[in-house]
Fold RND transporter.
Amino acid sequence: MSLKTITYATACLSLVTLGGCVMGPDFTAPKTPLPNHWAPTPSQSEHSATAESPVDVRWWDSFADPQLSTLVREAQTHNFDLQMAASRLEQSRAMRRQIAAATLPAADGTAGYSRSRNSQRGLMDASGNEGKQAFNIWKGGLDISWEADLWGRVKRSVEVADASVQMAQEDRHALQLLVIVQTAQDYIQLRSTQQGLAVVEQNLHIAQRTLELTQLQLNEGVATDLQVSEAAAQVAEIEARLAPLQQHSAQLINALSLLLAREPRALQQQLSPVAAVPAYTGDVPIGLPSELAQRRPDIRRAQAQLHAATAAIGMAKADFYPRITLSGNLGFQALQLSDLGSWGSRSFAFGPGMSVPVFEGGRLKGALQLQEGRQQEAGIGYQKTVLRAWHEVDDALVAYQASQRRRDSLQQAVAHNQRALDSVHQQYAQGTVDFLNVLTVQNALLANQAALVDSTAQVSLTLVNLYGALGGGWQG
């Protein structure tokens, strides 16, 4: 290789290593418009911990229900939506690897054979046969190309790809949180429905005993046919409440089976035994409002989206400048296979190529304006996401406190109703009150018992919603 050739190659490599500046603004994480403390809500201090307490990552275990913890673990492992989200995350990582490959030289090995014959009337015949006979061409070599990223276009594209991977990760985190919350909600509703069934069956047993007592009183001439009919109607009315609750229970078991990617009724035997509604009696570690930016996947995704939009501006600006590519070829070419690889069959070519945008009709300027508009939209979207998260947590806190106060009141009401029912049954047996009093008190007890079961479940459900709003329940 001559000195002139070496000098030329050195000059080309120096041009590539001049690398330069990165176009466009650098991304900086936006400041979250969140206060240092939550605004006080009624009775908040009774059931919430100090602001410095972190959210428990495995918050579902705080209900101390092994069945619930088992279902959540299985849902995170087998749920089809989570499996698809994991696949999308791997796709985004593969795309990132594909884009990042542009930062490195591309080398392709080539090899070929052809048999041809040139025209006798042509300008030249490289074989020396003057087009009178066919000849063989054997060749092999290495093609190399590398774009000199002088303006940071490739670097910004990798930055966009990294932000896209982050968005896919947060999408998976958000879906994982949703699956956990949905599993916990369905399980709590199932136990609430089963408790409601137990309440109805208990009241049905009381109503049947009352009907038997009324029939005995009719035989003794103390009661009337009207009272017997009223007692029988009360039994039928309570029995009518069983079927909808049984249907709802079966549907919730199937909903949990679907979350766990199981066939219908797969959990029937496991979940059919009646159990108490999962309850949590400790403090709620709500943490600092500013920590939402690190907990909630939607806020983290919005930040990654803003990052991608910011980096895309640099890509659009780099398109205004020349694009320089260094390419080369090293190889061998011979008419005879035996000569291929000899020093005389060598061939090479290398040098830079440059592409300069001369006239694009406003396309590049429009592309830049488009990316700047997308960055502005992403910034507004980030602020909206943070504010919505703040509202969701505040609403969940209020609902949690209200559901607790309602449950406490209903517990007192049920206790009073139970004592009233015991008293009115004694008075009815003694004949001092009529059957209408019995019906009134029993209906009041049944209504308040059902409301208490529902309220107890609502306390747990609102706590689940609160943890979901806080962004708990996933590994960082």
Q: What stands out?
A: Confidence is low (pLDDT under 50) at residues 1-19, 48-53.
